[in-house]
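re: that chain from earlier
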Amino acid sequence: MEKAGGTEEAGKSPSLPPLHPTIPSNVNPESMKPPRYSIAHRCGVGTSGQQISLLANHFKVSVNATDAVFYQYTVTISSEDRVVESKGIGRKLVDKLYQTYSSELDGKRFAYDGEKSLYTVGRLPQNKCEFTMVLEESFAKRSPDGDGSPVGTGKRTKCSFWSKTYKVELSYSAKIPLKSISLALKGVESDNSCQDALRVLDIILRQQAANRGCLLVRQSFFRDDSKNYVDVGGGVLGLRGFHSSFRPTQGGLSLNMDVSTTMILKPGPVMDFLKLNLNVNDIRFGNDAHFWMKAKRMLKNMRIKTTHRNMEFKIIGLSEKPCAEQYFPMKVKNGDSGEAQTVEITVYEYFTKHCGIELTYSANMPCLDVGKPKRPNYLPIELCSLVSLQRYTKALSLNQRATLVERSRQKPRDRIRTLTDAMRSSQFDEYPVLSACGISIGKELIEVNGRVLETPRLKVGNHEDCIPRNGRWNFNNKRLLDPKKIERWIVVNFSARCDISRISRDLISCARNKGIEMERPHTLIEEDRQAAQASPAARVESMFELIIAKLPGPPDFILCVLPVRKNSDIYGPWKKKCLSDIGIVTQCISPGKINDQYLTNVLLKINSKVGGINSLLEIERPSNLPLIKDTPTLILGMDVSHGSPGRSDIPSIAAVVGSRYWPLISRYRASVRTQSPKLEMIDALYKPLPNGNNDDGIIRELLVDFYKTSNSRKPKQIIVFRDGVSESQFNQVLNIELEQIIKAYQHLGEADVPKFTVIVAQKNHHTKLFQANAPENVPPGTVVDTKIVHPRNYDFYMCAHAGMIGTSRPAHYHVLLDEIGFPPNSLQNLIHSLSYVNQRSTTATSIVAPICYAHLAAQQMGQFLKFEELSETSSAHMTSAGSIPVEVLPRLNQKVAGSMFFC
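^ sequence. v structure.
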């Protein structure tokens, strides 16, 4: 964190791109060839669909001084001949540098990234210059004491001033012409100069926000204003601010501005925060070791301000003993001789007797340690308050997330009003460095033309057509297309509140209406009440002992009733036992209100898992899919899920789904692996074993399955949908992941490599679309491939779903490679159609189904690991990726490996 004018997230400066890409462990960087593929250029625009007038949250940017040049200087800060790396001091020194030495620097204004790079418009008088400055800060003066002395100790305490001398060296580093942006806007290649120039413009925005005291989170800026707070509970606030970044587009340079929200700690007394966060109402828990263990984990690295001295510190831990029992050595003067002597005194006694501060509840509680690891400094907890603008980076609970969504969502017209008001009050035109570039920014949202694609028609049972309306459909009075018979099944109940006899009767009745022949369950098994007190893993084992005792053999399907709807601790061990150990398809439910709609949704999942088909696109049977119907085509969906924010010890989960039964595009199989934490590139696509003969990778599994289910046809075309990667990683997708896919194909003895189309889908962006002439969200099927898209690369925005609440966020599709050669209309209609094939849904999804499935598969099998890490008898194997040991994910049992278990 930085607190010098502004506060910014550590390590997130946009000025320093990574020197080397993150490369999977099985790829040798030294052996990597020059890039085989480059990012595709736009081959045209789509024309199909009905025209619609739209607005986008982009604002037109005019650049009048196109010949301006940014000069980059490396900033080195030192004190007493030692380099200073502290982020907090940089902005203070550079601000003072300008105030003190402006004339020596020709009066040039700076854009400073807060770390090691400074930019000016035009050259400074010298390529290398050094300046000396003194910084002064007030502090509470105290006499030196022994280890463990509380802050503010000493016989007399007064406000004094601390001064320190710094040297700031500026040395010329690079020249970045502003005209590189105009060249990129015309589609002319300009190496990385355009990105460098855009990065400087973004740094200018960050610096101005820092000068206003904002919290900086990459390109989002947050003012400390209680009007922008959303209390989500647990001592956590949502803080609303704005994202601002410059984007090169077909229509010219634009400023993309959007409402943004980050999570912060609720400022105020530390004890109030702990009671809220750890859900404790009574403060009489001084001896609760479990509470203080959780509190220590939660409080570490938080910044506090003392109420008795008004000083700021960072928490490094808690004292081992309560305040009234935690001793420290204090030096006091002997009244007779005047010599100093050391006495042992408790923190509580020091503050109450020597400082005259009344402590009402801290005596039996640990103190906060705000010192150094080898020199603790203790403070009673009731004298400390959390300072404002501290980010909360842990995962939100379900209730917190729901509250945040409920209280921060905005209807389209409200969001437009918020953005235009913010733009008019932003004073961008007064930013000195922007003015020096001749940059001015419009105040109105950019107008753009869009198209609404025709809604795909669906086929359901009894040869009926189903025509979605506004991106939605239902199975009222309809049958499923291919319902599977369910004969040997059982119901198990981990919930004391559910009547499973009634649930099974209602489910059978609803199933018959949908065309599913569902026999009565073989047995209904209630959990033994004594077993309910055991650990989750033990409860699952006990349940399977009952199943084995009551059944002559394993069932084909198990309906499992859980005690809670989300985050049940039984879910992980149950899924692992069924899907990995035994090989039984299972559906978990935790019903609240049971009605026909609820039961229908459950049956859609069950039918998909047991091999049925709920609906197909009309163009799938008989196949009429352009460029797919005549050539065997495999569709892959790829995603990587990471652990909670702040948890770098949890492996990432990579999941890939592959289509089956070509020419269908609605049936998929998943393959899932673990990999190093936070690694975004999938490293298990191709995994040759030491003997060199076998490949244990994901792609081989999906290729073999495609061959077996597609009448022994090998894919001649492969369409890859990749989720979760940023623009800086596009080349890695093409030249690392795609290369691994090709190697896996060749490992099967194939000489002819298929044609590839590689598409990245992004949801984590800040472009929003609005209807120009209506207050509602854009209609489902809206696509934009002009004006606000990249000036050269092949991308487009598509909003396939119906936004019922808040403002819809379109998916941003980037076509990185298209060897298959889809015309724009065909590709956009294919992607639109793939938003209607999710077998567990009766609404169009916001992103293509293969990516949805990959995300679901990673999420569900990731629960295996959550179970493993909680299990004391975990026998999971470990593998090593680089120097980080990674827990190996249990594989699916072959009986269910080909099922759509993730539905």
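Residues 133 and 166 are 5 Å apart (CA to CA).
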